[in-house]
Amino acid sequence: MAAPSSTARTRLTKPKKQHQHVQQRTSNKRKRDDVDIETLEAQVSQLDATATHTTFAHLPLSTPTTEGLKAAAFTTLTDIQSKAISLALKGHDILGAAKTGSGKTLAFLLPVLENLYRSQCVGADAGLGAMIIAPTRELAFQIFDVLRKIGKHHQIAAGVVAGGKSLKEERDALARMNIVVCTPGRILQHLSQTAAFSVDNLQMLVLDEADRILDMGFSHDVDAILDYLPPHRQTLLFSATQTKKVGDLARLSLQDPEYVSVHDNSVAATPQKLKQNYIIVPLPQKLDTLWSFITEKSSKHSKILVFLSSTKQVRFVYEAFRHMQPGIPLLHLHGRQKQSVRLDTVDRFRRAKFSCLFATDVVARGVDFPAVDWVVQVDAPEDADTYIHRVGRTARYEREGRAVMFLDPSEEEGMLKRLEAKKVPIEQIKVKEKKQTSIKNQLQGMCFQDPQLKYLGQKAFISYTRSLHVQKDREIYDLQKYDLEGFAASLGLPGTPRIQFHKADNLEAVNKRKNAPRVEALDSEDERESKEKAVRTKYDRMFERKNQDVLAEHYQKIVGDGDDSGDRVDGEEGEEDLFEVRQRIPAGEDANASADEDEDAGDAAEAATNGAKTINIAGASQPLVLDSKRREKLLKSKKKLLRLKDKGSKILFDDDGTAHQIYELEDEAAFRAKGAVAEQRKRYVDAEAARVAEVDLGDKAAAKEKKRARIIKRKERERAEEEEEDGAGVELEGGVDAMANFLADAGPGSTSGDGDESEAKERQRKKAKTEGKGTGKKWFQRDVPAKEEAETGREISTFEDLEMEAARVLG
């Protein structure tokens, strides 16, 4: 490269000065930020946590947070926010309890943003500063949406890790996050498998809906997550039904936590503007009542959230109601759906003005659906806390709402007692009989026409029955008190499905046995060794696969005969089966024929004595005896009459269309009666040899005849060719008459009076054409003698030359 010129060197000095100026401005900006942080630290230290604050302007918040709150239209503090934010800004651990829809999300997001802002936890170099754990994906994405609105002016990086996406994409994003909103299972997977994911600088841990996270299903995950986190951190727990449990405090390693509750024991745990009712509905009438409610004229212009106890019930009710078209948009949501489908359903229900969403408890906690008019609990909740969370989806942020719960008569006393202990005001209402609509017949018709819907209904029945069986509160849910046969009929099922329950007394024992290592479940050391030695390849697994449609093994267990060792769905032992066997018919046509023959013989004998009426049927050797109504019905069925007719013998057609009997093996006794095996073999070989010799003679004669016919045909062809050569040997000679005759025959107006002469000329033309192919001449050329060619002085090569020569000859 050439050396830079002087002008280039002078230009290089200008950016250097500008860069120094930028660095000076950056340092001045950092000084101003440091002054702002110091001011915030002083204001937070002087903040009175016991004072009551009404607006966000009374709190020492940073400028980016203030701008975010203003853009999101947050101005007034709720009760839980007024008490919790002040304590959290000072660094206290908090146990927060407040009613649903009271603003708990903002109560922990603001302290997270402010504490990370004051500690300058910004950028990828700072690492992860805060972890927010939610029990469901829907709640995690909702928290992230609120965080994005109020923190859009901050330089802090945040994201969601809730599963449903590629693990590699989440790993790459985790390395750049300062705040992560996650679910317990997915974040535990990253903590144990992602090597670049470091939580050493974690400052804050937030658990939203802490009571749900600390349930049996999540407690082990939380224990494992806490083992990875640093012990010196700030922990915030929020829920609508939070309690001060010593075990929970020890598990989460809280340091002198502050218990924040905005309602005492004398105040209801549900919103004041929420109108709560329940109706007594027997289990077989629940779907009828739900359909009548949804199709009500006023309900079609409402936003309804319907809770069911299991995923299979949600799917069945959604598919059945969707086919019957109630006149309101229907949606369904459960935990077995993909993440994209769940998020799309949540977004559609939020934006909808009128809609009905069938869902499980996956959206019962924390999820904010705006303007929900009705919360319908078709299946009663497992406890009072779950009831509070369910009805909390309506009447949020001082809005009005209504909730109704369907209770079986056996559930009324126990559930009302639990709700009364939680200070939940609820009143009973009744359903108007004239507005009650039954859909039992419609469901039966749909299940009859669609086997998949019937199969889904059977699984819905089983899942609901199991949910009752595993309930911990046996005082409310006693399986023996439910009309399960009527419930199966209300689903449109032809019979009550069978199910074998676990013998465990409680759900904890069932899960413990299910999650136990496989080796511990083996009975003996010999069995363990046999299991270790038995290596199953992919081909073994391939051949072990079974059909997964409605005729699979699972379906056979639901409706098949099976053995009687499994418990009935109602738990009673020794009870007779739904279908009782009255008569067993042997399998196969021979068995049917023999049974019919015996029956006909008996009927004929009895008819001879009793004088019963007999009818002769065409094609049947035995007459039909009409001695009962059952026998008379045979005359109306063509299929049954065919069994009474004499059976013919089957025939087969070969490739030539010839019919012959089916080849059958000879009986062994008949075969041995014909003689010794060697003698029969010799007779068979001799007979086949004679047959082959006879056929061979015929084949030779036919071949000889074909050969003689070919020779005769060849000789006739040669004789015809010789005659053609003799008739076509005439050459054109110079002369007026010969050329005139030629031109007359070749002219366009010429006619032939003699057929033989015309045929001879045609053969001559063809022969000339054939010979011309070998000599390179055209079919209309002729052989001109050398003498004549010398006289004319020219060669005749084309038809025009021939015409000119003819004109010369004619003068």
TrEMBL record:
Q: Origin, by domain of life?
A: Eukaryota
Renumbered to this chain, region (Disordered) spans 1-34, 556-607, 706-798
Q: Name one GO cellular component term.
A: nucleolus
Q: Where is this motif: Q motif?
A: 54-82
What does the UniProt keyword field contain?
Answer: ATP-binding, Helicase, Hydrolase, Nucleotide-binding, Nucleus, Ribosome biogenesis, RNA-binding, rRNA processing
Q: Which reaction does it catalyse?
A: ATP + H2O = ADP + phosphate + H(+)
Q: Where is the composition biased (Basic and acidic residues)?
A: 769-794
Q: Which GO terms describe its molecular function?
A: ATP binding; hydrolase activity; RNA binding; RNA helicase activity
For whether the record's keyword set contains RNA-binding, the answer is: yes
The similarity annotation says:
Belongs to the DEAD box helicase family.
Q: What does this protein do?
A: RNA helicase.
What is the name of the protein in this document?
A: ATP-dependent RNA helicase
Please tell me the species this chain comes from.
Meristemomyces frigidus
| Lineage, uppermost ranks | Eukaryota, Fungi, Dikarya, Ascomycota, Pezizomycotina
